[in-house]
Amino acid sequence: MSNSSTLKRLMAVWPLLFGIFILTISNGLQGTLLGLRASSEGFPVAITGIIMAMYYAGFLIGCQYVPKMIASVGHIRVFAALASMASTTVLLHGLFVNPWLWIPIRLLTGFCFSGIFIIAESWLNKISNKEQRGTIFSAYVSIVYSGLFAGQFLINFAPLSKIDLFILVSILISVALAPITLTNKRTPGYQKPESISFRKMIKISPLAMSGVFVAGLCSSTMLSLGPVYASAIDMSRSEISIFMAVYIAGNAVLPIFLGALSDRIDRRKVIKLATIIAIICSVLITVYTHYYILIFLLGGMITSLYSVSITHMHDQIKKTQIVSASRSLILFNSIGSTIGPIAGGFLLAYAGHEGFFLMFAIYTGVLLVIAFYRSIVGEKIERKHRFVHLPAHFAPSIFRLKEKRPHQGDDKKP
Q1: What is the mean predicted confidence (pLDDT) over 152-169?
Q2: Which class would CATH give 7-401?
Q3: Are 391 and 326 a contacting pair, CB within 8 Å?
Q4: Of 16, 14, 9, 10, whose CA–CA distance to 124 is shortest?
Q5: Angle, CA of 49, 50 and 54, to the nearest 5°
Q6: Which whole-number Å values give the CA distances from 164 to 30, 51, 69, 86, 160, in the listed order?
Q7: The whole model's pTM is what?
Q8: What is the 3-state secondary structure (H, E, C) of 6-26?
Q9: Predicted pLDDT of residue 109
């Protein structure tokens, strides 16, 4: 595909991509803001962990129920309702600074964002044809990480003690909705989500399921409580924004290289390599806190575990099962993501910040044992699919964007 052709295809979907970019900026800012505000208000760290975990619990619930809402009343109505609630819930955090109120508010936020991303990704899939999918998927992943990266630096724009930053997040959500809702394409048709039971998935590949679960544990803990940890070791706000941004940069960059390696050698070896590096980095960060290269490497290894594990599962199932299997993997990852901040909050509360990154070493150490065991008892697996770098904590509908549908079905005019 020529550069001019690629540019034309991206320009055709730029309103949606721009809207998603703004949404991920708001998401990146909101997560860091809540952690720091909770810390500055003196919330118990264990309670802060529960608050932050509620986003992932709400997201998990949303992935189950939002498709049913769409089937009942349609994309536009559901999208408008969830977007309005998402913008409102952010302001409620700033108006009512109470940990017990923040728990249900954060749960509702996760539910709303799951629906917003399900619909946005469905729209993106609807308006991309067969030849565009690879380009648009790559652009989507880049935009997701760019937005999360940029959102970290907005934390320096206003005092934590005021409502200003919450208002900014609300404004960003509202601004993001305009290009998405004003797209000149018909709303996507409803597709009933498929599923494969967790029991069957574990039987097919216990390593892949363990990999996405551990990635969820680690990633959500870092994104939720990383700012709390950084504040506890007396980092300034600007240092915290750099600390988190470097972690996200590792998420974006390093999986590309480990993914390419996994296309050449047994993916189980790549999972072992990623876990070993993650363990070393986790131990060293405990001593060398300000060595950002360690944070960069850790972020890259955790996200690599997620993407390589999903691709490892894809190698062992039929092509027709990929979307339904991926949905189950994302839901299993979300369960791990919900548990991670809760466990991390209690650990920070009772073991102190010294044990924060050692927890990552324990999680990835258990995965390393499983990977070695599967390498010994597991059969040789033929690579049937190329690695695709995936953003964590997004809707299962993202996998429909990867599908190669029949040409005539893609290009029908609305």
Answers
A1: 93
A2: mainly alpha
A3: no
A4: 16
A5: 115
A6: 12, 21, 33, 17, 8
A7: 0.87
A8: HHHHHHHCHHHHHHHHHHHHH
A9: 94
- Alpha helix (H) residue ranges in 74-205: 75-95, 99-126, 133-153, 164-181, 198-204
CA 404 to CA 172: how far, in whole Å? 33
* pLDDT at residue 324 in the model: 72
Length of the chain: 414
Alpha carbons 387 and 17: distance in angstroms, whole number = 22
- Among 140-149, 232-241, 244-253, 392-401, which stretch is predicted with the lowest mean pLDDT? 392-401
Residue at token pair 């490892």 = 312
Kindly tell me the burial class for residue 320, based on how many C-beta atoms sit within 10 Å of its own C-beta (0-12, 13-18, 19 or more).
Answer: exposed
Rounded to whole angstroms, the Cα distance separating 333 from 303 reads 12
Cα separation, 403 vs 196, whole angstroms: 18
Residue in 376, 330, 405, 337 with CA at minimum distance from that of residue 128 = 405
Looking up tokens 């070393």 gives 280
How far apart are the C-alpha atoms of 315 and 303, rounded to whole Å? Answer: 19
Give me the half-sphere count of Cα atoms (radius 13 Å) on the Cβ side of residue 171. Answer: 7
Half-sphere exposure of 165 (CA within 13 A, CB side): 25
User: CA–CA separation, 99 vs 105, rounded Å?
Assistant: 10
CA distances from 144 to 26, 137, 235, 244, 391 (A): 11, 11, 26, 15, 7
pLDDT of residue 410: 42
How high is the pLDDT of residue 165? Answer: 95
| Torsion sign, CA atoms 96, 102, 107, 111 | positive
Query: 291: which 2 tokens?
Result: 């060595």
126 compared with 88, residue with greater pLDDT: 88
Is the pLDDT higher at 225 or at 16?
225
